[in-house]
Amino acid sequence: MGQKIETARTKWKQLKKTSSFHDAVLFLIFVAISALFWFILALNDSAQDNFNVKIQITNVPDTVTFISDIPEKVHVSVRDKGTNLWRSGILRHPSVDIDFKEYSSNGVMRFTHSDLMSALKGTFGSTAQITSSSIDSLRLVYTTNKGKRVPVTVVGAIYPASGSILEGDIRTEPSSVYVYGDKSVVDTIHKVVTDHIEMKDVSETTSVEVELRKIKGARIMPSMVKVTVPIEPLVRKEAMITITAVNVPNGESLLLFPSKVPVDYYVAMSRLSDNDDDDIELQVDYNDIARSSSSRLHVETVRFPDRLRNVNLKSDSVEYTIVKN
To answer: Whole-structure pTM over 0.90, yes or no?
Structure first.
């Protein structure tokens, strides 16, 4: 390996001593100088380029809240000497500063077309020509009124995955937000709602960032909330539930065999230790005796809470005996 490196060095030294090598080096130097002169001449020619100019509003009092959306940038096309355009785009980031106190009055900040063109001229230089602008002027509505705190309501549809359940209330963080605007508008607002969300086959607790639906003439802060959907797996549970007899005539009573039947169902895992017996109601109807020749009465599930799923009777009928009191 060392011998190969030494051989390469020897060949390189020999090559540098040849006239062909010197001619090639001189040629490359002249090409570089020519390219540099061409570049300088080209930059002195008139050219056009596009820029994103940052908009900054200065001297805004802490008591002011803008109702209108403030554009972050204005897209402009500028014609000028190439050197000036190159300096504007490469050497600095173009921006326009707007003094709030100078252009605001009675709840509105106005920055006219001539104001904008003048500010852009100041940014790009007096020789620049602004050929087009994505914004013609600015009219920003603001308020100095204090915000009104209102609750957030989630709008949407949540579909838990098979074997899961929505357990508890859907939460937002924050749970309430501030609404700013003219008093006549704010007084009519008692809540804000999220954009419609739809979640399918959700198998675990999930949080998503959701924007709040805009209200005309008002500003909502913050404009986005975190929505948390509490999802839990379903677990199987069984209980012995007492059967109640209804429509039994005075002077009689019904003896049921058995008087309790097993019921199985599914609940959220966090509710596995809850006592659900009093929330499930089973009935037999005395009037069914006259409507049927069977020696058994049909057992019906007449009440159970929404938190229970797939409620199932292990036995849907029982034997009975009529007792005269």
So the answer is: no
